[in-house]
Structure formats: structure tokens, C-alpha cells
Specification:
By secondary structure, the protein is an alpha+beta fold. Helices cover about 45% and strands about 20% of the residues. The protein folds into two domains: about 60 residues, Winged helix-like DNA-binding domain superfamily/Winged helix DNA-binding domain (Arc Repressor Mutant, subunit A); about 180 residues, GAF domain (Beta-Lactamase, 2-Layer Sandwich), CATH 3.30.450.40. It contains nine helices and nine strands. The protein starts with 7 loop residues before the first helix and ends with a helix.
Length: about 260
């Protein structure tokens, strides 16, 4: 259907431009901000944003700001096999898996969720039921909390504003002040733990991967069942996970060169 006298192709092109504006922003965008960038009539932009939200390509948060939607993130994750980041990380994930024998994840922060970009599966009979491209809440997963810890106060506030810290298990952090305190500890140590906070019986140790100049906020983790992975084991793996994260970022910087 054509609107405002434009062809379908022209309308689609403008909708794609709006989608790109929100997807590439380093923070959630309000309607007025998208309007200023797009230069489109208010009514036209409102219709485009509504359609993009309906299709799951964008998400309208409770604070009336737009972020990439889950459908868009899943589509984007499918292309990560050709992305330099995943290629750079792969050998380090394999090495970490070889050192620990448990499942290793690479995840990237998108809005208030962590998207799994890569996974090296444990060879044990009991292992994680996770899939590449799936999303989990960042606030109650090890790799998610590691990624959140790299953000400054305004960026954190933008993500957490209006977000319900839903209880998944008795260990889930549901108080924002408690979450902020834990993120401060993670920021200081460079290590995050998931002590059965998202799934009962699953524990994890993670480290952040952050390169603000390239808008990369991610994390790497080792995950296993609680009966096999106690806190002492997580503590033992922590330096290896942190080393893997640093090695990934060093290699990424070497390949991509200086930031612009």
C-alpha cells in the first residue's frame, strides 16, 4: 500500500532507514530523537515505527523508547557466522572448553537481553539446553551481568528503567539496588557469577568483552550443572575465563586496527 504519494519501494526504504537508525544507536531512542534523524512527517514515522514493532523488528519499552526487537536480533545473529567477532573468538572459546570440559558461551548485549552468538557444547551427558540466537535476561545470567557491568550509569539506567526484575529462581536478584551493587563488584573483579539465578541447577562464571569505540558489549562464560560445578570450581575457572576475554579483545583489536 502506498502512502503520502510515494511508491512502495520508497516507503520501504524509509522504513529500513528508521530501523537502521534505532538498531545502530548506542542507546534506546525516543520518538522525538528518531523524528529528528529521519526528517519524515510525524504521522508517517509513527506508522512506520508501529509496523516495525508489530513485526517484532523493534521493541517499544515501558519508558516509550525504541530498541531492536527480538526478531531483528535473531535475524542478525544468523549472520554472525560471517562476522569477524565470532571468527576471532572461536579459537579462544574452543581453548576454554578444552580447559574446563564444560559448555562455553559467547553472548552480546542487546537491550536488556543477552543474545547467544556462539556455543561450544560440553561433551558431558548432562549439559546446557541453550541455542545460538536465543535470548536470555541479562540481569540474571553470568554473561549478561558481565556485559552490563561495562556500561556507565546513564546506559545502565536506560536499560533498567521500567524493566521488571522477574524472579526465575529463589536466587534471582529482583532488587535494583542489589543488582547495581553486584554489577559494581563485577566491574572491580572482571568476573561475574550466575549462581542458579536464571535456571535451577545451572551455574556459570563469565567475563566481559567491551569495546565502547565499536559499540561492542558482550561476554564469554563457562556454564555447567550445579551438581558438577560448585563455587570452588567456578573460582578456579575465573582467571581462565578472564584471560580468554582479554585475549579475544586483543586479537579483535589487532585485526580491526585502531578505532576511528
Amino acid at each position: 500500500m502506498e502512502r503520502d504519494g510515494e511508491s512502495g519501494t520508497g516507503t520501504l526504504g524509509k522504513a529500513v532507514a528508521v530501523l537502521e537508525t534505532v538498531a545502530l544507536a548506542d542507546r534506546p531512542m525516543r520518538f522525538t530523537e528518531v523524528l529528528a534523524v529521519s526528517g519524515q512527517p510525524r504521522g508517517t514515522l509513527h506508522r512506520q515505527l508501529s509496523h516495525l514493532v508489530q513485526e517484532g523488528l523493534l521493541e517499544l519499552r515501558p519508558d516509550h523508547a525504541y530498541v531492536p526487537g527480538l526478531r531483528l536480533l535473531k535475524l542478525a545473529s544468523a549472520s554472525w557466522a560471517r562476522n569477524e567477532f565470532r571468527a576471532v573468538a572461536a579459537p579462544f572459546l574452543e581453548a576454554l572448553h578444552g580447559q574446563t570440559g564444560e559448555t562455553v558461551h559467547l553472548g552480546v548485549l542487546r537491550g536488556h537481553e543477552i543474545i547467544y552468538l556462539d556455543k561450544v557444547e560440553s561433551r558431558q551427558a548432562v549439559r546446557m539446553n541453550s541455542q545460538i540466537g536465543n535470548a536470555s535476561p541479562a540481569y540474571c545470567t553470568g554473561v549478561g551481568k558481565a556485559a552490563l557491568s561495562t556500561l556507565d550509569a546513564p546506559a545502565l539506567d536506560a536499560i533498567l528503567c521500567g524493566l521488571e526484575l522477574r524472579r526465575f529462581t529463589p536466587q534471582t536478584i529482583t532488587d535494583r539496588a542489589a543488582l547495581m551493587a553486584e554489577l559494581a563488584q563485577i566491574r572491580a573483579s572482571g568476573i561475574a557469577f550466575d549462581r542458579e539465578e536464571h535456571e535451577p541447577g545451572i551455574r556459570c562464571v563469565a567475563a566481559p568483552l567491551a569495546d565502547p569505540g565499536r559499540a561492542l558489549v558482550a561476554g564469554v562464560s563457562v556454564t555447567g550443572p550445579a551438581y558438577r560445578v560448585g563455587q570452588a570450581q567456578l573460582d578456579d575457572w575465573a582467571p581462565r575465563v578472564r584471560h580468554a576475554a582479554r585475549a579475544i579483545m586483543d586479537e579483535l583489536s589487532a585485526r580491526l586496527g585502531p578505532q576511528r
